[in-house]
Design brief:
Elements (H helix, E strand, L loop, with lengths): L9 H11 L6 E6 L8 E6 L2 E7 L12 H11 L9 E4 L10 E5 L17 H19 L17 H16 L5 H12 L9 E3 L8 E3 L6 E4 L6 E3 L1 H13 L14 H4 L4 H12 L7 H25 L5 H4 L2 H19 L1
Antiparallel strand pairs: 1-2, 2-3, 3-5, 4-5, 6-9, 7-8
């Protein structure tokens, strides 16, 4: 077992998996994926093939965070729909050979694009096709019939942004390490500019971005949408704004945004064009209150980063060295949100 694989006892895990996963046999290697900050993820190599194990992190956790059972449930429900997901193989309880809840899913061979400017794509035509496939997958996700999939209780419908603002404000305060004036201003602005609930409810991913999906090795086709920890029933524009917010972050940073990138020269759609195509796919004429949705996305990302930073300080981060840089990122995100509000005013 790799030294990065944490406290996983391979000798104890092997017979457990053989007893709970059909045809699983001969576990001989566990390797921790370097990417990811929330739930540590491992590649399992066995005589019967390759698998992926995703677990809760060790240590004391924030309430309602790291619910790998929710990830398992939503991906299992989406099997066979227009939203591509890996096949779910097993969900454990809390008492496991590794001391934490985990699930196992199939391993897929594909491409993950870590840089949204897509320097590894074959050219502008493929870049445009990749973004269109990502757009189509998002629209398909928001068109899913949650009642038919048995997910009607996967979240509380209505007042999504009001509830999310309360939740993430509480989590931000619980992990706050210093006062950031722009964050305090952003929270106050969101509270006073909360739009009326328009009744839109859909399954939302919660962390919809390019590097949370896998594409076919030889085509601009999405074969898996991954990392569903933050999924719930909510407002579809939260996903759309979160993705567009990611692209506003600076490209020359750990966030790998599209800020400063010449989209037209790279064959990438503008934000306006991307939103327009999404709306056309879903039969929506226009989106009001776009500034609010973007500002909320900035706030939520900052709150998430603050939680990662706090876990690093507490010694519970999945990737400790990288996590420590997230403290500085919170200030950057809050500053960009403040600039967005200033332009609005």
């Amino acid at each position: 077992m790799s030294g990065d694989a944490g406290a996983i006892d391979q000798a104890a895990l092997a017979p457990y998996l053989e007893a709970h996963i059909p045809d699983f046999t001969g576990l001989f290697a566990i390797e921790k994926f370097k990417s990811g900050q929330s739930n540590p993820t491992y590649l399992l190599t066995a005589a019967s093939g390759r698998y992926v194990l995703r677990a809760k992190p060790p240590g004391q956790l924030l309430k309602s965070a790291h619910q790998v059972d929710r990830e398992f449930r939503v991906m299992q429900a989406l099997a066979g729909t227009a939203v591509p997901v890996p096949r779910m193989l097993h969900l454990s309880g809390d008492g496991t050979p590794i001391g934490r809840m985990f699930y196992v899913m199939e391993y897929l061979d594909g491409r993950i694009f870590w840089d949204p400017s897509l320097p590894d794509a074959s050219g502008n035509e493929e870049r445009a096709a990749i973004y269109d496939a990502m757009n189509a997958t998002l629209a398909a996700l928001h068109d899913v019939d949650v009642d038919a999939l048995g997910l009607s209780d996967f979240g509380r419908p209505g007042s999504y942004f009001e509830r999310q603002l309360s939740r993430w404000t509480s989590q931000y305060r619980a992990s706050e390490t210093e006062t950031i004036a722009d964050m305090d201003r952003l929270i106050a602005w969101l509270e006073t500019h909360m739009p009326a609930d328009d009744g839109r409810v859909s399954l939302v991913h919660g962390d919809y971005r390019l590097d949370n999906m896998m594409f076919a090795p030889d085509a601009p086709k999405v074969i898996a949408l991954l990392d569903w920890e933050l999924s719930t029933l909510g407002h579809p524009f939260a996903d759309l704004a979160y993705q567009c917010m990611q692209w506003r972050l600076p490209h020359a940073s750990g966030f790998r945004g599209l800020g400063g990138v010449d989209r037209a020269a790279a064959g990438l759609p503008s934000e306006e064009a991307y939103v327009t195509v999404y709306c056309r796919r879903r039969g929506i004429e226009a989106i009001d209150n776009w500034t609010f949705f973007l500002a909320f996305a900035f706030f939520r990302l900052a709150a998430i980063c603050q939680g990662v930073y706090r876990r690093a300080l507490d010694g519970n981060a999945s990737n400790p060295e990288k996590a420590k840089t997230y403290g500085q990122a919170v200030e950057l995100i809050a500053m960009l949100a403040a600039e967005l509000l200033d332009r609005k005013n």
